[in-house]
Amino acid sequence: MISLTEIRKIFQTKNGPVTAVDGINLTINEGEIYGVIGYSGAGKSTLIRMLNMLERPSEGDVVVAGRNLSKLKPTELRKARQEIGMIFQHFNLLWSRTVRDNIAFPLEIAGVKKTERMKRVDELIKLVGLEGREESYPSQLSGGQKQRVGIARALANNPKVLLCDEATSALDPKTTDSILDLLVDINERLGLTIILITHEMHVIRKICHQVAVMEAGKIVEQGPVREVFRKPKEKMTKEFVKQITETDETVEAVDHMLADYPDGQLVQLTFVGEEAERPLITQLIRHFDVEVNIIQGKLTKIQEGSYGTLFVALTGDKEEIGKAIAFIREKEVEVEVIAHA
Ligand SMILES: Nc1ncnc2c1ncn2[C@@H]1O[C@H](COP(=O)(O)OP(=O)(O)OP(=O)(O)O)[C@@H](O)[C@H]1O
User: Fold this and answer.
1) Which residue in 5, 155, 200, 273 is a FRET match for 94, CA 20 to 30 A apart?
2) Given the CA of residue 18, which atom of ligand 1 is nearest to it?
């Protein structure tokens, strides 16, 4: 659906050239929700803006739905852009227009006739759950409602792709979740391919199928969300995964356990999908001469199944503990030894 080949963006500034995106190759399949995560300045906005040529790459090709956007003439590009909707952190609504007229705007530009336009707007209002607010102005709406208008407007011309530029960063956690649910709903109902950028792992965890981690203009790690959660390789990725797994409470509990179990071995188990449901602890106790104390556990839903972390202290003979850990690893559960006695 989308492929980027050796994309580079160099901004010429008065202090010299700034490389915002530094040789990115990426393939996004149809119907996928693809998340790009990175800290501020990593180059995420520049990258997503190159997917609809709001920013022209200095080098490389951007192919969307079979068309090489880097090579299109202005009229062809305008047409291609109708297949790519976009939503923004600060909504970018027209403040002097009502909800209805904001959503109708891209249809007016595309030359859609009034009766058809009105019909389409009604469908979109229903789709995003804004019935009853048609005649309100953006200033009369909550943040979540404003983003719903942004989504409806982005979908007006039936795009194949939706780009989300930090679309929930200005929203509180509850509203964030309702907008993320709406994006999943749209993805499933319309088969829309969604690309989002964010600095929050929660967003990736909740809705993405695939994730790419960006640092200094490059993608340092990418893959299916469940795999990246199960076994993050790069330091940056580990930091992001910790946003989900290692709350302050966990760190405090682990510190306590280290003091309380001086003879034990503290391990963190990480499981995804079906592994999370297997009776692993029972098997450990049954097969090995070890004591297993559960310190803290957390099961979280990810887009495709569940993801769990469990902190346990194993006490017993050193060799027996070693065998128990090897057994866990055989079950394809990730084991990180936190501290030795
Ligand atoms: N128009 C521009 N002119 C000059 N430099 C730019 C421009 N746009 C972005 N940059 C620089 O490119 C780098 C990447 O910026 P970008 O906004 O893409 O990162 P980001 O990951 O989206 O971060 P943020 O979330 O803070 O926007 C930064 O060093 C930024 O200063």
Assistant:
1) 200
2) 5
